[in-house]
Write a structure and sequence with these properties.
This protein has 696 residues and is an alpha/beta fold. The chain is 21% helix and 19% strand. It is built from 15 helices and 30 strands. The strands form 7 sheets. Strands 13-14-15-16-17-18-19-20 form an 8-stranded parallel beta barrel. Helix 8 crosses helix 9 and helix 12 runs parallel beside helix 14. The longest helix is centred in the C-terminal third of the chain and has 20 residues. The N and C termini lie far apart (77 Å).
């Protein structure tokens, strides 16, 4: 840019780089810094600044806020900080003025072509190509008439997807410059709309460090955040323009909203990509390490509750303000509809790492009026054993239900002693949520997610196969509650293939029709495989991408999933009473349990089957569910009457039947000719009958 900017003292608020009359006010917090420089750059690859502003401690510092006002700074200006202070790891200080430091409140990050994560980990090594913050003007974008869909949880179907992996495959049909981008997602909205999902949950979209992975691989999932305000440049249609990604993201949100689909972000406020002691310095380590991270007793090492090397000090006042400001930005300025908080239980730890009953940051989020209509979803555990499913604080938080995942897998895959837990998960996990007087959708139900096997692999592999991750198969979960039906991995055996498809349909039925808000993983509707890799965090390739040819290969599975979703949404619309609390819902005389014989459920350790009759809240319809996880067929008796009405059962779903008899529209269901039904091995059957009106 080859110009000199004029500087003034500036003011201590608002924090970050803020546009004001005539220029930009820059503010950064550092309690223990002895000096701060603001650096401007002309090009992203530059290692030498075009202009340096030395902040005078007596004039450019108020409290622990360092500030300066620079006149005439244009949008797109590249900048960063050089922060001076002690390098005393034993006291928690890791200042390194040789490193360019990102603005933690910066709204865009630009990455040089020869960026080297390893070089940033070497103390005192200067002339290192570094990421740079970018001045952004958020006021020019036209949101038109955009508004939040505000879909109630009782009507919510969540689809977890990876922004890059959804369209990166050449067979996606997306133009090459849009593949793996926010704009690429826009082109697939018709597919998602037809599938019936009401919300997309995007794996991390904050700028992350792709080099945080084993040698020769890249960080694909994005759980290595660099900034809590900046979008990942890899998802931009023009990665060389650091401002383009903001327009792409906002265009995407606007397009999803026009289709009635909400956008939920998977956010990582529990750790950063700076990792442990030997990790790089590009932000918080170099700003004020002892403020931003949880440290051990002598402060020389990081407390690691995230499994990644460090833990953010989320309940420290400065860090709390950072997290809240980030969330405000995504809701107010980027129109996001909700958040899924990765390892959210870490946010309930105090500054010494101890769990606290009323964590300040979680209550700040819970009670903030900005988030009153925002979906808040917690992964209610951390990597150090703190497990809070069913016990997470507040009234607004919903929870990923890991117990649902495990108990559904265990029962359907034939593990013993699982029938009682299976039933509990079907009816909204009252053991976890009834005491909180919660709605059924307090539980976010899922069988698979990004972390673990895909649904196809869950029924195809007994063991994980993660050698491609270059960690000697040590990474990823060892206990997957999976079952390969006799052959590990791909097979041409038609019997095994049929059983695997049947089992996938069983999982879909239970997940999409249980009480709670269901989430399905990208590609599970068409049998996507990761070849047995249950930790594909570093596989930015066909292993983890959506293979769009599967739509033609498995149209029966796609149809089955669509029809399940359609029925669930129709049921919720017809019965708004489903918004009542779980306690009130279960207190209704609506559910009767059976075994092969009516009213004789088998709750024993060796039981592998259960049946249940469910009456709709308006008493106009009944459904009869049969779950046979046994390896042989079982004949089940059917109720011949409900109340004063005789039943005329019709078959809606039988997962053992081939397409198209495996599922049908309700008004096309075929009558059952006698009072019994033969349920095949490893199958799920749902029958329905109209009742008229039964008086309460």
């Amino acid at each position: 840019m080859n110009r000199n900017f004029e500087a003034k003292f500036g003011q201590s608020f608002p924090i970050g780089a803020t546009k004001m009359d005539g220029g930009i006010n820059f503010v950064i917090y550092s309690k223990h810094a002895t000096g701060v420089d603001l650096l401007f750059f002309d090009h992203v690859d530059d290692v030498n600044p075009s202009q340096v502003f030395n902040l005078d401690k007596s004039k450019n510092k108020t409290y622990h806020y360092w500030h300066i006002f620079i006149e005439g700074v244009p949008t797109g200006q590249l900048y960063g900080y050089r922060i001076y202070g002690p390098y005393l790891p034993e006291k928690g200080h890791r200042f390194d003025p040789s490193k360019l430091i990102l603005d933690p409140y910066g709204k865009s990050v630009s990455i040089p072509k020869n960026y080297d994560r390893k070089a940033l980990a070497k103390f005192g090594l200067d002339q290192v190509p570094s990421m740079k913050s970018v001045i952004v003007d958020l006021e020019k974008y036209d949101w038109e008439d955009d508004h939040h869909p505000k879909t109630p949880f009782s009507q919510t179907i969540i689809y977890e997807l990876h922004v890059g992996g959804f369209t990166k495959n050449q067979n996606s049909g997306v133009d090459s410059f849009k593949r793996g981008t926010f704009l690429g997602l826009i082109e697939k909205i018709p597919y998602l709309k037809e599938l019936g999902v009401t919300a997309v949950e995007l794996l991390p979209v904050f700028q992350f460090d792709v080099q945080d992975a084993p040698e020769g691989l890249s960080n694909y999932w994005g759980y290595s955040p660099v900034s809590f305000f900046s979008l990942h440049q890899g998802y931009s249609s023009d990665p060389d323009n650091p401002l383009q990604v903001l327009d792409d993201f906002r265009d995407m949100v606007k397009a999803f909203h026009k289709a009635g689909i909400e956008v939920i972000l998977d956010v990582v406020f529990n750790h950063t990509g700076e990792n442990k002691e030997d990790g790089p310095t590009y932000s918080f380590k170099g700003i004020d390490n002892s403020v931003y991270y949880l440290l051990n007793g002598d402060k020389s090492k990081y407390l690691d509750y995230s499994g990644t090397g460090n833990t953010l000090n989320a309940n420290q006042s400065i860090v709390r303000r950072l997290i809240l400001s980030s969330l405000h930005f995504w809701v107010r300025d980027m129109h996001v509809d909700g958040f899924r908080f990765d390892l959210a239980s870490i946010l309930s730890r105090d500054e010494n790492g101890n769990p606290v009953e009323n964590p300040p940051i979680l209550w700040d989020i819970e009670s903030d009026p900005v988030f009153a209509g925002t979906k808040l979803i917690a992964e209610a555990w951390d990597a150090a054993g703190l497990y809070q499913v069913g016990k997470f604080i507040g009234d607004s938080w919903k929870e990923w239900n890991g117990k649902f995942r495990d108990d559904i897998r265990g029962f359907l895959n034939g593990y013993k002693g699982k029938v009682s837990e299976f039933v509990t998960r079907l009816i909204g996990s009252p053991d976890l949520y009834q005491k909180k007087d919660s709605i059924p959708e307090q539980s976010i139900n899922f069988v698979t997610c990004h972390d673990g096997f895909t649904l196809n692999d869950l029924v195809s592999y007994n063991e994980k196969h993660n050698l491609a991750n270059k960690e000697e198969n040590r990474d990823g979960h060892n206990e997957n509650l999976s079952w390969n039906f006799g052959t590990e991995g791909p097979t041409d055996n038609p019997t095994i293939l049929a059983l695997r498809k049947r089992q996938i349909k069983n999982f879909h039925v239970v997940n999409l029709l249980s009480m709670g808000a269901p989430m399905i993983l990208m590609g599970d509707e068409v049998c996507r495989t990761q070849l047995g890799n249950n930790n594909a965090y570093c596989q930015d390739n066909e292993i983890a991408w959506f293979d769009w040819s599967l739509i033609e290969k498995h149209p029966d599975m796609l149809r089955f999933t669509k029809m399940l979703i359609q029925t669930r949404l129709k049921r919720g619309t017809a019965h708004p009473e489903f918004n009542m609390s779980l306690k009130d819902l279960l207190n209704q005389p609506l559910i009767t349990w059976h075994g092969a014989k009516l009213h004789q459920p088998d709750w024993s350790y060796n039981s592998h089957s259960i049946a249940v009759t469910v009456i709709s809240i308006n008493r106009e319809m009944a459904l009869h569910y049969i779950f046979n996880a046994f390896h042989q067929e079982i004949e089940f008796e059917l109720p011949t009457s409900i109340g004063k009405y005789k039943t005329k059962w019709k078959a809606w779903i039988d997962t053992a039947q081939d397409y198209p008899r495996d599922i049908c529209l309700w008004d096309e269901a075929k009558p059952i000719k006698n009072g019994k039904y033969l349920a095949q091995a490893h199958s799920t059957v749902i029958l329905l009958t109209q009742l008229g009106t039964i008086k309460k």
